Amino acid sequence: MAHDIFISYSSRDKNIADAVVSRMESGGIRCWYAPRDILPGSDWAESIIEAINGSRIMVLIFTQNSNISIQVLREVDRAVEAGVTVIPMKMEDIEPAESMKGYLEGVHWLDAVDEKLEASAEELYVLCRAVMETSEAQSAEEERKKRKRLSVKKIILLAFAALVLFFGSKYVLRILRLSGVIRLRNYEPLGAQSPVGELSAGYGTEPFYAEGTAPGNIRTGGYIAYADGWYYFRSNDDEKLYKMREDGSGAMKLSDHSAKFIFIYGDRVYFEEEHGYVGIYSVTTDGQDEKMIYGTDVPYMSVMGDRLYYFDHWEGLSYIDLTGDADSIAFSGESVYYDENLVYDMFEMCFDGRYMYYTTVKLNGIYRLDISDGTAERLVRKEVSGLVLADGYLYFNDFTDGSIKAYELSSGDILTVVPFLMDYYQVRNDGIYGNSAGDGYLIRYDPSTGTTYQLSDKQVTYVCLANERLFFWDYYKFYSSDLRGRAVIAL
After folding, report:
1. Nearest Cα to 30, choosing from 64, 4, 60?
2. pLDDT tens readout for residues 12-46
3. Rounded distance, CA 326 to CA 322, Å?
4. Which domains does the chain have, with CATH numbers?
5. What is the CA radius of gyration of the chain?
6. pTM beyond cutoff 0.70
7. What distance in Å separates the CA atoms of residue 152 and residue 355, rounded to the nearest whole number?
């Protein structure tokens, strides 16, 4: 069904979304929002992407819940990518998280913090109607200008063809490159081999961390894990939990829940459901005896040793002892650290068993908290994001100069590792894997040679890594490939 507006919201704020949709549609503006408009049997992720692409406006119900929701961030990212106008409806007096802030700079906010919901919905309706009418007028003007530009373009193409005939194509292309008219990415061809380094078969098995739950994977969603010859992953089947063999065969559904923060302990798979009945679940590795073990969504979950650590905005940093049976560990979490101010202000975090490293919404920099005594110190005074803890270094995106840096924990020295930003990345001994913030392609950067290898012709996000395979999303489907971008499998 045709629609004008896509409603992006956290499931915890459904009452607000319902009120907004009711007002819009009573005035003839058709809305799309989940789960109402997802047809039975349809692919959840694909339905959302199609709906965003077909929208004129995205209304973002901006609350603390949506501010920390990866799903909402994903929807806003896609809307910006598709050129859809985003109108945030601010319901709470909070600042956007760093991951959200870049998308919302320069947009028109509707401040509804101190207003009643009915009045706010009315004001939003008037604003959306005005934006739609302005857009229609601009479209007509753009069409007129486009016809004019096409005639100019024909003249340029004819001139280019004449130059090629007279001088030869290679000579003309060289002139255009030197003049800056044509710029080429400094990427090697797809599937290029690494000139250095031996591939590490043990990625993710640093001290404390189980395979697939190293900080890089957790930051990007933890959508793939590995154990005993099997990969466990989030699938294109409504994001449900599946497993497959190393060669991609034997694909098998393990749960009807969506899956993130996936890891394996003993004979059970642990994961978080983030869409329907949110919470932490476990199921046997053959898909039996599924149980909920914690009943709310969490922005962080990892396993170190025999403990499942998680962080939420009600309990702070807590853990569940995994040594008992599935029934005895259910809802048995114990708090490790709680600070009323920090739980609502924290933006990103990683944890090594003693220290919690984090950024906040309000303050720039990276902080380290000693869990044993609750003392905190600021390690880095910069505007940063993307904390990844690996091999004695804390990696981060440094927005002051547009690079990835590494803070050496033993000395406090800061090194530049990658001369550009990467939205989601993984650290290995043979390079940094992730998606380039500049153009979104899946790449590997080799710091030892300064070479960037393009691994896919897809623009991707949510890059995860386990054992010898990459996991990524191209805004339509989830895929997996080997570490050179080959053997690509749609999941």
Report:
1. 4
2. 888 888 888 888 888 888 999 888 888 877 777 77
3. 8
4. 5-136 (3.40.50.10140), 215-490 (2.120.10.30)
5. 24
6. no
7. 61
